[in-house]
Specification:
The complex is a heterodimer of chains A (193) and B (514). Helices cover 35% and strands 23% of the residues of chain A. With 193 residues, chain A is an alpha+beta fold. In chain A, strands 1, 4, 5, 6, 7 and 8 form a 6-stranded mixed beta sheet that branches. In chain A, strands 2-3 form a two-stranded antiparallel sheet. The longest helix of chain A is centred in the first third of the chain and has 32 residues. With 514 residues, chain B is an alpha+beta fold. A 7-stranded mixed beta sheet of chain B has the order 9-10-3-2-1-12-11. Chain B has a 6-stranded mixed beta sheet with strand order 22-21-23-28-24-27, with helices on both faces. Helix content of chain B is 25%, strand content 34%. Chain B is elongated. In chain B, helix 4 links the parallel strand 21 and strand 22. The chains are: A alpha+beta (193), B alpha+beta (514).
């Protein structure tokens, strides 16, 4: 074996070792990317804390005076860095407790567990069990609860085209025995005045 | 004088005496005519005096009844006053001056002893202009309706339709709701009114052997329809007209007319009773194209649905209405009615639809009561299923598969995705929803938007026309009280029944809803 051939083998080995080292060093980032579809944003805290005090305007939905539809209201809500974080901020603001005379169609005590976004534009909103256990029932009430969340995300985030509600991390048939929640639901403004 | 003359004389005398006696009796029998005054305070009568062919009432009676003032001056002019407004009458003139405005009367005031009499029209033409409540004079029935009292005019007709059927029509003007219930040997029709303005007799005597032997008053707002021995069953339909609500009762006879009818069993109080099992098909239909109806009582078991502070549960209300619908439809149309639950138990969503699908029901009706975050929200709403565009297209594309059959051979089977079965029936479902809305309009208070479309789980898998009815809001205290009442539940069940009849009648002969 000539010295030139030994040099070549040595160079290839060094390059291979460097490549392996590079792969090993970057592995955690690739892994996190793989799980980022769908991307999850546990709540709280947000994955990327927003600069304190930074706000955006969003349209939120509450029960209209006649009780049969939703009325939209423009509110300042916390800025979220990225679509998932922003979706979480919107839902958190939407389900937050309100003072009379505003009435929310989301049962009091409902907490946001997580928001997931897929690259297909579907949002999965995971709510705590109170959205079922504290729900007062009735087809209309349930429709308004569901479309409060669906419309809050689809109206404010153009990238979100449909929303599916989960309860305690699981898919549910309905919240109160009426509205089919087994699939993501598209924006529906017929429930808004 | 021959023998015949001898006998003729006493006969003539006897007849004359009898006629005189009858005339004397008849002159005593009829009560003096009176004008019945109906108001919130009750029913009172004012005597009517007939002068010539004109009906008069005493001015002093009107003064007492309506708290008027009466003054007669030296020249004979009469001034009637009420709260600062006046009517001036002149004894020899068929005119009245009402606060300076002249109105005509059919006759001048007439003196009777020390009293003044005025034509009845004085009330409707003059007094009504100064009085602070509506005065509605109904001369043919000698009725004066004061204020906001609901007194519909009632007109009753009966006509035989065939050898074994007859049709009784009751018009109520203005439109007035009514509830029909069957008793042992008669039907009762109770109107949602304060009194009825009806002719006497209500109906000319029907011929012998008629299915309806008479119509009479039970009380001020209830009529009884007496039924002949051949009665087997009936079907009622409400038809809203311009200002009238027409109740059509199709009365059906037993098929074996020569067999004496057995008296119907006395129904349990408050329970609609199924009619005889052999009730013939309804009118105009040689064979019904609807055979089975699935009625789904919403919720059940540990799922109460909406619950009021007083403990009223949607699940109980839904079951009560579903049972009433079943009783009426089975009794009057002879159709099979399946309840998805007939007791208080939890029924999974898919089981509700599969009961209807597996039994090839022609119509699926889910009964619910609504809830709102606002306590004032009210009214019934009818929901049809809604699907997104992709789902609808996917279902429409459908497809068939060639599958082996029992006994050998292959057969093309149409494959319908379970969750999209309703997509093929949406047009008929919406048509039925429209009919329900029309039938509810005069019976059941409707929401501001009575028909809606929504992705409702229980409707999506129904492979037949299907609707979900929310009869009203239990979260509204007034509506909760209404919905839990027997009268409303009967009325709602009747309206659903009427819509089913209309839906059936729109299907082509020999066609099917499925």
């Amino acid at each position: 074996m000539s010295s030139r051939r030994l040099l070549t083998i040595g160079a290839v080995t060094i390059v291979a070792l460097a490549a392996i080292a590079l792969v090993l060093l970057r592995a955690p980032r690739l892994s996190s990317r793989a799980t980022a579809t769908p991307r999850a944003a546990a709540a709280p805290p947000p994955t990327v804390p927003a600069p304190p005090g930074r706000k955006i305007k969003a349209r939120l939905f509450y029960v209209a005076d006649d009780g049969t539809r939703l009325a939209s209201v423009e509110r300042d809500i916390a800025y979220g860095d990225g679509a998932t974080a922003q979706a979480r901020e919107i839902v958190a603001a939407q389900i937050a407790a309100v003072a009379t005379p505003v009435v929310s169609a989301v049962p009091a005590g409902t907490a946001l567990r997580a928001v997931f976004l897929t690259e297909g534009g579907e949002a999965y909103v995971d709510l705590s069990r109170e959205v079922v256990s504290a729900h007062p029932g009735g087809t209309l009430n349930e429709l308004l609860t569901v479309y409060t969340i669906v419309n809050a995300l689809t109206v404010n985030l153009p990238a979100v085209t449909a929303v599916q509600l989960l309860v305690d991390g699981k898919e549910v048939e309905t919240l109160a025995g009426h509205v089919d929640l087994r699939h993501p639901l598209a924006k529906n403004l017929s429930w808004v005045q | 004088m021959n023998v015949r003359t001898i006998f003729r004389f006493p006969t003539a005398v006897t007849l004359g005496l009898l006629l005189a006696l009858a005339a004397a009796l008849s002159s005593q029998t009829p009560a003096p005519p009176s004008l019945t005054v109906l108001s919130k305070d009750g029913r009172r009568a004012i005597p009517i005096a007939i002068v010539g062919d004109q009906e008069f009432v005493g001015l002093d009676d009107l003064v007492t009844m309506f708290q008027l003032t009466l003054r007669e001056d030296a020249l004979g002019a009469i001034t009637v006053g009420y709260k600062g407004k006046t009517i001036l009458l002149t004894p020899d003139q068929a005119l009245a001056s009402v606060s300076g405005r002249l109105v005509s009367l059919p006759a001048p005031p007439s003196r009777s002893g020390r009293r003044w009499l005025v034509p009845e029209e004085f009330v409707s033409r003059a007094l009504t202009l100064i009085y602070d409540q509506r005065l509605d004079l109904r001369k043919p029935s000698r009725l004066l309706v004061v204020g906001d009292v609901r007194v519909p005019r009632i007109a009753v007709r009966y006509e035989p339709v065939a050898a074994n059927a007859g049709r009784l029509t009751i018009d109520a003007t203005p439109r007035t709701l009514s509830t029909v219930t069957q008793e042992a040997d008669h039907l009762t029709v109770k109107f949602d009114a304060d009194a009825l303005d009806a002719p006497n007799p209500l109906l000319p005597p029907p011929p012998a052997q008629s299915l309806v032997t008479g119509v009479r008053f039970v009380d001020a707002t209830t009529l009884a329809i007496d039924l002949g021995a051949r009665f087997a069953g009936f079907r009622s339909t409400s038809l809203p007209m311009e200002t009238t609500l027409r109740l059509v009762l199709d009365i059906l006879a037993q098929a074996q007319t020569e067999t004496p009818a057995q008296p119907a069993p006395t129904p349990a109080p408050g329970q609609p009773q199924p009619g005889p099992p052999e009730i013939p098909p309804a009118f105009g239909q040689s064979s019904s194209v609807i055979h089975t109806i699935a009625v789904d009582a919403g919720h059940g078991g540990d799922d109460d649905g909406v619950r009021t502070a007083e403990g009223v549960k949607e699940k109980d209300l839904a079951l009560a209405i579903a049972r009433r619908v079943r009783a009426i439809v089975e009794a009057r149309l002879g159709l099979r009615v399946l309840l998805t639950r007939d007791d208080d138990r939890n029924v999974p969503m898919d089981e509700r639809a599969s009961l209807a699908n597996n039994n090839k029901a022609d119509l699926f009706i889910s009964v619910h009561a609504n809830g709102s975050m606002r306590p004032t929200t009210s009214g019934a709403a009818i929901y049809c299923a809604a699907f997104d565009k992709d789902a609808a297209q996917s279902a429409a594309a459908g497809g068939t598969e060639r599958l082996p059959t029992f006994g050998g051979g292959l057969r093309d089977i149409e494959m319908v995705p379970w969750d999209l079965a309703q997509t093929r029936h949406l047009a008929q479902s919406e048509g039925f929803a429209e009919m329900l809305q029309q039938q509810f309009r005069d019976h059941v208070p409707l929401a501001s938007r009575p028909i809606d479309r929504a992705p409702l789980r229980v409707l999506e898998s129904a492979n037949m026309p299907a609707v979900l009815i929310e009869l009203g809001y239990l979260t509204n205290p007034e509506q909760a009280k209404l919905l839990t009442g027997d009268a409303f539940q009967n009325t709602a069940a009747q309206a659903i029944f009427d819509a089913i009849v209309r839906f059936r009648d729109t299907l082509p002969p020999g066609g099917t809803a499925r």
